Each structure stands twice: as structure tokens, then as C-alpha cells.
Amino acid sequence: MKSCFTLKSSITSITIGGFDGMHIAHQELFRRLDDNGGIVVIETGYANLTPNINREKYTIFPLFYYPLADIKHLTPKQFVGLLKEEFPNLQKIVVGFDFKFGAGASGSIALLKNFFDGVVEVVNEFVCDDIAVHSRKIRDFISCGDIEKANKFLGKNYTLSGIHIKGQGLGKKQFVPTINIECKNFLLPNEGIYVTRSMVNGIKYPSVSFLGHRVSTDGKYAIETHILENDLDEISPYIEIEFIVKIRENCKYNDMENLKKQILDDIEVAKQILL
Questions:
Q1: Taking the model in full, what pTM does it have?
Q2: Residue range(s) of every CATH 3.40.50.620 domain in the chain
Q3: CATH 2.40.30.30 in the chain, residues?
């Protein structure tokens, strides 16, 4: 089992869940932790809003990772026993209203209160704009390009990261220079042009980004970002893109001059929003 460097013996309160997205409903759980709180992440392997250790950017509390495959056989009583053994000074557990645990999700909140002799605090369903906040709903927003709604539910701008790769080479020659990115494990917004901020060389720059199939050139899928009003000579191997709003859908242009004009128009829209 993976854990952070904080000693589990120092933890006096925990919250338990998958916590993909670290969104505003999750933050409501975190607010109920004490100063020596910790976050127990049940790692299912399906997290794609904040995969792996990306969750750690969005909390001050230490995270302890438990792969689901390692614990899914435990009965509810055994699972609580594991928590008590690994966190010997645990006094409080914070869970959501629909929390289930143990083999086959057979454990209820009533059982948790029965097996754990400390405080069990149950947090009600969190609602935003009359919609219950869940990671699956945020995934729906991102998948259809409604980044503004996704960001509102996340409580931050949706951000993905990837490795800088070599592109077609057409951008700098015929259009505008772009940084090409290979991104794994993250849910990608639907195809189109987005106003973004891109972290390059440790600096966050205003940018405009494209995700989708390059239907006007080679037809291949690409993630490209153009840094506004900066011509970078050196580009770090690791890039982050923070999404703010979608400008338009991906379109095919048979004339390269029209494509270039549209790219320049997109840049102006991004400038009006960011600069």
C-alpha cells in the first residue's frame, strides 16, 4: 500500500473515498477534518480527473492510497479494523451520506458507527445550481465541452498534464507556433478550441489550445497549445494545460489561408478574455 510521508500514527481524523476531481463536494468533507487529518483514497484505477498523485495539488492534508484490489475482500468489520490498526490514534471518520464499504459494498454508515468507537460525521449531499455534485457529472460536462460548468463544480479550472512531443512542424512555418503534448490517464475535453493557461518551464502563460483530429491537415489526433505574446526558445518536457472556456468546435478548412485566419481570430478571442 502506498502512503505519503506523514506518519499514520499522527493522524486523528480521516475521510474515505475515491476523490477523483477533488471537487467542491470533496472539499466539504475535507473541511470537517481536524488539524491532524488525513485523506484515505480508495484507488480504483478509474480516476481520470485527477489521476494518481495529481490529487495532492488540491489539498493541504496528506493522502494515503489504498488500491481497491488489496482491500475489496475485507468484510466491513475487517475494513474498520484495518483503519484502527493503521491509524492507531484515529478519533474521527468523516464520510458522505451515501458511503458504503467492505466486500460488495455491504457496509453501511450504521455499521461504521457500530464498529468504530470514535466520532462518525456524515456530510449531506452537496448541491450546486440545483444539481448534486459528483465526479461523474463533472466528467459529463468535460466530455461535452462545458468547461465553465465543470470548473464551477470542481472549484478550480480543469487541468491536464502531459509530455512535450514533436508535432507536424506546420504551426511555426504556416500558422502560429504550438507546443504539442502527449497526455495519458486524463479525461480529455471534447474536440475544439479552448481558452487556456499553460504551464511551461514552471511559468503559467495565457494560451489558446486545440484538442482533436487535425481534419484540415493529417487527420491525426493532437493536443496543441499556443502561448500568447511569448515566443519560447526552450520548452520543458512536462506541460500543464488549464482550461477556462471553449471558443468553438473543431472545423475542417480546405483553404490554408482560411484556416490561418480562423486561428488568428481564435487568438484574439483568447486575448480578450485573458489579457
A1: 0.93
A2: 2-132
A3: 157-274
Write 267-273 long-range contacts (CB < 8 A, 24+).
Answer: 267/176, 267/208, 267/226, 267/228, 269/195, 269/208, 270/195, 270/196, 270/206, 270/207, 270/208, 270/228, 271/206, 271/228, 271/229, 273/195, 273/244, 273/245
Kindly state the cell numbers that stand for 23.
471537487
CATH number listed for the domain at residues 157-274: 2.40.30.30
Q: Measured between alpha carbons, how far is 193 from 210 in angstroms, rounded to an integer? A: 5
* Nearest residue to 67 via CA among 4, 18, 135, 1: 1
Contact 271, 225 (CB under 8 A): no
CATH says 2-132 is which class? alpha beta
Here the cell at position 191 is: 474536440
Sign of the four-CA dihedral 147, 148, 154, 159 = positive
Place of cell 478571442: 269
pLDDT in tens, the chain (275 residues): 444 589 999 999 999 999 999 999 999 999 999 999 999 999 999 999 999 999 999 999 999 999 999 999 999 999 999 999 999 999 999 999 999 999 999 999 999 999 999 999 999 999 999 999 999 999 999 999 999 999 999 999 999 999 999 876 555 556 688 999 999 999 999 999 999 999 999 999 999 999 999 998 888 999 999 999 888 888 999 999 999 999 999 999 888 888 889 999 999 999 999 98
Cα 13 to Cα 20: distance, rounded to the nearest angstrom: 20
